[in-house]
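Bug #77: duplicate submission created two jobs. Keeping one. Sequence:
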Amino acid sequence: MAHTRISMYLPPNINPTQAAIAYGCRALPKLNEELQSEDLLTRQKALMALCDLMHDPEHVYVAISIGCLESLKALLKDTNHVVRIKATEVLYIMATHNVGREGFLEHGIIAALSFLLSDPLTACRENLHLVYKHLAQLPSGAQGIVSSGLIPSLVWKLQREEEKIQELLLDTLAACLLEDATEALASHAVPFLKEKLISANDNIRSKAACTLMAISIPLEGKKQVWRYDVIPILVHLLEDPVEEVQASAAGALMYATVTTAGKYAALDVEAINPLLKMLGLPSRKARLNAIKALTMLAEAPEGRKFLQVHVAAFRVLQVDTDQAVQRAAKVAIEVIEWKP
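Kept job's structure:
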């Protein structure tokens, strides 16, 4: 005879750490209410559920419209470390969508997150910097970070964070400095970036060179790169075993050698030969940056004289598969063959 027996196990596909999600349009309003609950477990479960839902940009739009961002801003100051970690994780997932990034700019998320820059939890800080990295991909987001006065703090953190967070910081800074490098230059970012160029981490070397490229766009940046003796290190990186590092170093040299002082600093450490070797690399970025850096050096009489016997290498690039490389090679030949 059969007996009725209640199982001791949870039903399949049920996550006990996640809040039950209401049906249809009631789902997000209910979770927003639970985010404001005084019960710790309720807040934690609601955050877990939001982490899943925020992968859908339509849910992100609804969450912003019903005020979830204000609830999340309050949770960033929660004393419980799980709540802070999950709150920053929700914001990071939302930041992967354009609608989320635009919502952040409208609701002051940049400033709210800045209070966690010194949070003792690595996971919390990593999520924070992931948000900033995604925000900085939008020109308005990069400008928002600059306008918030965070650049000096980000530069300072570059010396103290773990390597995986340093990579995120460099990505954020590179994008922000394209908008305005003034505060970074005033915060001695160039000598800090110089140290990162000799890091054992390939990604950090490459990203530091990219950030130097951005900071070298204004004249003061070019002067500081020369003044802090960064150019010899960049020339050394032209022979780095990692092609991406080579390409980024050539890009930084491209800007740093616009000034006369930068040109002669590069010529003094024999930058031309490693740049010529890069013309044959498979990477389009590496070839293009190398051509442009050589064009800058050809503007100096000594550089032009040296490169005149290498014009054939540039003529080969005039039939390159990439049109930008073709145009850059044509300009380089014109500068090299120019006669007063």
